[in-house]
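The data are quoted verbatim here:
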Amino acid sequence: MFFTRWQTDRNRSRRFFEEDQSIRIWDWASGKAVQTLIGHNFTIHSVAFSPNGNWLATGSRDKTAKIWDLSRGKAIITLEGHSSAVRCVAFSPDGNRLATGTGDVDGQDETVKIWDLNLDVLIRHAQENRLAGLTLPQLQAYNLELLLDFHPDNETKLIATREVWQIKAFADLAAVQAAGSTILSNVEPSFARAERLYAAALALQDEVFIRENYADALRRWAVVCKSNGLEGQGSSLEAKAKWGWTEKEITNILLSVALSQNCIVI
C-alpha cells in the first residue's frame, strides 16, 4: 500500500508517505527528504497533523497509533488497544483528543476509539497495557521520553498524582536527558526538571535511594556550571548535594512549580 498526504506552510511543502513502514518528510523546493520517522512494524494506513502543526499521528497495520513530535523526530506515545489495523486517525480541533478507527476486510473489527491526550490518562493506559509501574528503562522503551513536554501542565499533573516512584522515574529520565553535553543552555532545563521532580518525590516520601540519585544529578549539574565559568552556582549545587534538602527548601521548590503553572496551593 502507498499512502500520501500533503501539508503546506510558508517555507516548505511536506509530503508524508508510507513505504517500508516509514514516513518521510520532503522539502518541496529541493526535492530532498529532510526527515524520516521510523517506529511502526507494518504498513502505515493513515496520518493526521495536530491543529498546531507540531505533531503527527499515524495509524498502522501493526494495530497501533503513534503520535510524533516533528521537531524532534520522535514518537511521544504509542497507543495500543485495537485488535486490527488502525486505518484512520484524526485530532480534535483543540488537539486534546485523538480518534482512531479500524476496519477489517471481513468486517469483524470495526471500532473507533477516542483517546484523551493528557498525562495521567496516557500513563494509566501504558500501565494497563504493559506493567503496573513505569521505570526509567520502560519510559525510554515505550517512547514516553517527551511526555512531559506534550502539554505545558503535564509536570504539575504528574506531581499531583502523588505517585512517588512514578515521579522519581520521570526525575531519573530528566537527569539522563541532561547527560552528554557540557553546554549549560542545552542541559539546564533537564537538570531543573530533575530537581523539581526529585524534590516532589522527597516531599512525599523521604527515601535514601531518592536522595542519592538526587545528589548525583546535582553534582553533575555543578560540573557543567563550573565548566561554563559559573563557580558560584556550581558550588551552591555541590553544597546541596552534600547536605541534602531541608523540608523548607523542598516546600519552596514545589511552591515555585505550582505558581509557574498558575495552580492554587492549599
User: Anything to note?
Assistant: Helices lie at 119-129, 136-141, 154-160, 164-177, 184-204, 208-227, 231-243, 247-260. The first helix runs from residue 119 to 129. Confidence is low (pLDDT under 50) at residues 1-19.
